[in-house]
Amino acid sequence: MSGSMYDLSVATYSQEGRIYQVEYATKAVENSETVIGVKCKDGVILAGEKQKFSRLLEDNTNKRIYNIDTQTGMAICGKLPDGRNILQRAKAESSQYQDMYAIPASANVLSDRVAQYVHAYTMYSGARPFGSATFIASYNTFDGYELFMIEPSGNKYAYHACTHGKGRAVCKSEFERRSFKDLTCQEALVYIAKMLILAHEEFKEKKYEYEMTWITDNNGRKHQSVPQDLINNAVQQAEQLIEQDQMGE
């Protein structure tokens, strides 16, 4: 086997200090559809692409972005069943925090608790790591807008902009060229759509649909789906930008 038998248990380190099953879980996320999280000057956006592997599927099924509470959302990159398990834990932690302290849990506190849960699955031979990376976006009065990503290892990081999945390289290059902190959420939609289109085109796979949610000053700082007409408009403008870039080369 590729791990020379060290990958039979998540509780076993290799001679180089590696945990192969965690690396395999990370590879599962890297081979997934692209997911993006971006903080703007008036909010935060979560976006992703969903593969339409059958014409029989109804629209808006097999979601990648969910509500944890009214002001907190979670996006899943990687294996959806694993991600939904993490989502249920996040909802339970959020509800418990609300009951105990009578205020919503911040994204920092919530992601810390969820990260510990994810990390626990890398410690025991009877478990396997989650094949999902999760993005948590939130707003609270004390910290403002927050964006965190939790990796299959249980590591969590705070970001201004983050991405995972097959198109991560394309998205990261766009992040480096553009400061989303200076854009409103509505202005940023076009560039997010552009990244998703470019990430998809690089692999020439089946049809996709785009899923976007936001928490902004304009919607009462609640985690809600971006209206479909705004998504359609952003995709059209993004296609025009890509066409202009190609003509300029």
UniProtKB/TrEMBL annotation:
It is found in: Cytoplasm; Nucleus. Residues 6-28 form the Proteasome alpha-type subunits domain. It comes from the Eukaryota. Its main location: cytoplasm. Keywords: Cytoplasm, Nucleus, Proteasome. It holds the Pfam family Proteasome. Gene3D superfamilies: Glutamine Phosphoribosylpyrophosphate, subunit 1, domain 1 (3.60.20.10). GO terms for biological process: proteasome-mediated ubiquitin-dependent protein catabolic process. InterPro entries: Ntn_hydrolases_N, Proteasome_alpha, Proteasome_alpha-type, Proteasome_asu_N, Proteasome_sua/b. Belongs to the peptidase T1A family. The proteasome is a multicatalytic proteinase complex which is characterized by its ability to cleave peptides with Arg, Phe, Tyr, Leu, and Glu adjacent to the leaving group at neutral or slightly basic pH. The proteasome has an ATP-dependent proteolytic activity. This is Proteasome alpha-type subunits domain-containing protein. The lineage of its organism: Eukaryota, Sar, Alveolata, Ciliophora, Intramacronucleata.
